[in-house]
Amino acid sequence: MSVLDTPVDAKIPDIGLESPPLSLSEMAWRRFRRHKLAIASSFLLLFLILFTFGGALIYSEADANFNDTTKRLQAPTAEHPFGTDTIGRDILARTIYGGQISILIGLTAVIVQVVVGVIIGAISGYYGGWLDSLLMRITEAILTIPTLFLLLVMAKFFSGKVPDLNFFGRTFSGSVVVIILIIGLTSWPRLARIVRAEFLALKENDFILAARATGTSNTQIMFKHILPNTVAPIVVTATLSVAGAIIFEAYISFLGMGVQPPTATWGNMITGATTYIEYAPWLWFFPGVLILLTVLSINFVGDGLRDALDPRSRPE
Q1: Which residue from 33, 69, 213, 295 puts its CA 20 to 30 A from 63's CA?
Q2: Below-70 pLDDT ranges, the chain
Q3: Does a structural domain hold residue 290?
């Protein structure tokens, strides 16, 4: 019987063909998909970002700052879905613009943290010796200082000393810059220690020794050969640090030493609700819930990334 006479429904024999190996990105995606909470949190985080930044297309900053004392402390209605505050400002509009500042503070503070932490950790881990000892003693000294206490002291010291900023048509109080720098410059030590440990483990590998033998400069070895292999812990640490930065901003803003008016954040919105906790719960409920959802979603996404980027995990 010829090949043409083979029935259509005949089974094709297995000749041992194997599927091509998965790339690193495909394996990471498979691991991440197994983390159901991380997937759900990714959609929730996307929604929160659309709410805070997309909401600016519906409400202007003038709407967020407009006050009408005849409508002060109104409960949620169709006109004001989140209610109004003590001077008649719309809570929904203020949570939109306050969320922008809270999220931007978290992101930019982490950028500062990553830049400082990676540079110090890389230099310390690669060169070692007295330089490693000096940088690690400085790192340990900063770690011994309570972060919240340092934030409060520095925020109080720089309060009112930085002028307001105009950026993309918006006015930001100078305290925003102060809070970003304080959070970023006090949160790098843990990341620096992680990067240092990775550099210590990788710098004696064969591919690094080969790079040295070919005359590659130390800077190129550090940032082109070793650093790309430490991206996974850096990404996970930075992701989780965004949530921490948002919480710290809420702490000090709640205590009255953070971002100052006219700039709204979720933290200083809760501050104005402290005397109306029982009588006007909408003042603290909506910004509080947004902080909670944002921090939880970022933490779950960070957990998913940690599992996805762990080379010891196996995709199913």
Answers
A1: 295
A2: 1-24, 159-160, 162-174, 261-262, 310-316
A3: yes
